[in-house]
Amino acid sequence: MRKNKVAIIKFAILVMAAVSGAPSQARAQAEKAAYPVMAPVDQYLMPDQNAEIALARTGAPPSISDGAEVMVLSRTGFTTAVKGTNGFLCVVERSWGAMTDDPEFWNPKIRSPICFNPAAAKTFAPIFLMKTRLVLAGRSRAQILAQTSEALDKKELPALEPGSMCYMMSKQQYLNDRDVHWHPHVMIFVSGDAGKSWGANVEGSPIIAANDPEERVTIMMVPVWKWSDGTPGPALVH
Q1: To the nearest whole number, what is the mean pLDDT of the chain?
Q2: pLDDT greater at residue 213 or residue 200
Q3: What pLDDT shows up at residue 8?
Q4: pLDDT tens string 168-183
């Protein structure tokens, strides 16, 4: 998921906390106590498939999401509900999109509309889709990490394609209990620990980086100023 003197660095640390689970120790303990195990599956499902499709499309502007493939969550994993025409993929990400040690890994309230571009749809989204199948098969966090790591080691999951990125611009997003709607942003996926080479997380830089060693990428986040529906996003706090 996921502070310096300037607003963008304050903003960066909020994102890094959201993505990589880096709240204060007391807050982490409270969150860990709140979501120690997986909730009943029904709490992660959306009963109205059309509502889930509509929510997934809010991840990106309509000029992108209207032509995207849309997948919805079932009891066994994500399935295609709408075939796309432009190579993009929109889903409503659930809590296990985070790393396995995130305190909100089992938070059933999380609904994060996300639209992957064609490169990410082919080479990054498969990790999340695999984690989803493992979650719904009843695997533990440790087992999920072990099996996804093994799949990456054996190249059963595709290598990340250059240019992989996604949109997270939904005004309706629920990213976590701390930040909820947070801010519209785009994310770029880069292999390895690449934050420093991008000049991320330094004063004056618009790029926020969170290293995700479990998925073997650095997530580069860039805030944008409008939600996907064209309305203004929240102002950064100075």
Answers
A1: 86
A2: 213
A3: 36
A4: 999 999 999 887 878 8
Check if the beta carbon of residue 101 is closer than 8 Å to that of residue 1: no
d(C-alpha 142, C-alpha 147), whole Å: 9
What is residue 36's three-state secondary structure?
A: coil
- Give the tens place of pLDDT for each residue, 99-143: 999 999 999 999 999 999 999 999 999 999 999 999 999 999 999
Domain boundaries, the chain: 7-223
Residues with Cβ < 8 Å from 27, sequence gap 6 or more?
Answer: 178
Phi, then psi, of 80 in degrees rounded to 5: -75, 125
| Under 8 Å between Cβ of 12 and 202 | no
Here the tokens at position 195 are 């934050």
Question: Which residues contact residue 21 at a Cβ distance below 8 angstroms, ignoring those fewer than 6 apart?
Answer: 1, 2, 28, 98, 99, 101, 102, 103, 104
**pLDDT value, residue 136:** 97
Specify the pTM: 0.84
Distance, in Å, from the CA atom of 109 to the CA atom of 66, rounded to the nearest integer, reads 26
CA 20 to chain centroid:
11
Nearest to 81 by CA among 72, 91, 90, 89: 72
DSSP 184-206: -EEEEEEESS-TGGGTTTSTT--
Q: Of 65, 71, 70, 68, whose CA–CA distance to 85 is shortest?
A: 68
